[in-house]
Amino acid sequence: MLTISPALPRLASRVDAVHKVTVRVPAKVNLQLAVGPLNDDGFHDLVTVFHAVSLYDDVVAQEVPKGDGVSVHVEGAHSENVPVGLDNLAARAAELLAESFNVMPDVNLLLRKGIPVAGGMAGGSADAAGALVACASLWGLSASKDELHDLAAQLGSDVPFALHGGTAVGRGRGDELTPALARGEYHWVFALSHGGLSTPSVYRRIDEIRSDRKIAEPSLSADLMHALGSGDAEALGRALTNDLQAAALSLKPGLRLTLDAGQHAGALGAIVSGSGPTCAFLARDEEHALDLAVDLSASGTCRTVVRAHGPVGGAKIVSN
Ligand code: C5P
């Protein structure tokens, strides 16, 4: 019989004397990404439908001696491509939070990467959202959801959604969120590419491609919202769109082969995720996702494949 010694909790708290908080944050795929004209501030007005999926980064915020400042460590596949200095978005999140609440920004941030790096799935934004939530808890700040949202929007267009998760419509730069009425669970296969794409260069490329025409203001797809509202995966697959796809394909033409391979294997829909180069394939159900993953893997058109489901919740404290 298993007995629990009353001495154990005291022992555990002595061993675990360094205070740390772990926050888990999901990746996103854009079900629609409609890109308007370039504004004077260097950003484009967007209408996008964010969908959080079950690929996660863990952000561990750990107490350090007073005056040590912010440090960043990264673990996981391709973590060598993640900056560890103060140009890391998670470090900037910690600094911004500390400045807003008038506390010292002393913390070590360990980023455990499960989200593809530079893949168009908002991994860097997820880390920033995770750092906000983890540091607020570590430093004992009573930050409201609205306050965290405002700080997140200052850090990047995708950061607020990483806090909220679920399925949501994003407007403005992508940071003005409204929850979307979405039924059902969706099963996805993501094909990861060799190397990444830089988001600003993909936006620059779309401006070049469209320089010969007048660009209309973006609008929400009624077909997509109807598919989501009725939980119809087949209709959702048909309604997936991404205005950045042409730009990502022009910078990485090999992605066309990946998209074709997924379509050939029977995906309900196939798109580049965000600014790419990850490609997203919608499956009918979990079993179909497994078949798709096997076929895509065998096609030899991508580095690796991962499966995920959505929607899932946003940044959440998993241990404290
Ligand atoms: O907001 P974030 O830092 O993620 O944006 C990265 C880059 O993506 C911007 O510097 C800009 O070039 C481009 N971008 C844009 N319009 C948006 C969002 C991002 O042009 N709405």
Reading the helices and strands in chain order gives: HEEEHEHHHEEEHHHEHHEEHEE
Give the fraction of residues assigned to helices: 25-40%
Tally of alpha and pi helices? 11
What gross morphology would you assign? globular
The largest sheet is: 8 strands, mixed
Q: Structural class per helix/strand content? A: alpha+beta
Beta strand %? 25-35%
Oligomer: single chain
End-to-end distance, in Å? 29 Å
Which regions are unreliable across 5 or more consecutive residues at pLDDT < 50? Answer: 1-15
Number of strands: 12
Bound molecules: cytidine-5'-monophosphate
Protein described:
This protein has helices at about 5-15, 90-100, 125-140, 145-155, 160-165, 200-210, 220-230, 235-240, 245-250, 255-265, 285-300; strands at about 20-40, 45-60, 70-75, 105-110, 165-170, 175-180, 185-190, 240, 270, 280-285, 305-310, 315-320. With about 325 residues, the protein is α+β, with helices and mostly antiparallel strands. Strands 1, 2, 3, 4, 5, 6, 8 and 12 form an eight-stranded mixed beta sheet that branches. A four-stranded antiparallel beta sheet has the order 9-10-7-11. Strand 9 (about 270) and strand 10 form a beta hairpin. The two termini are about 30 Å apart. The model is unreliable at about 1-15 (pLDDT under 50). Cytidine-5'-monophosphate binds near residues 46, 157 and 203.
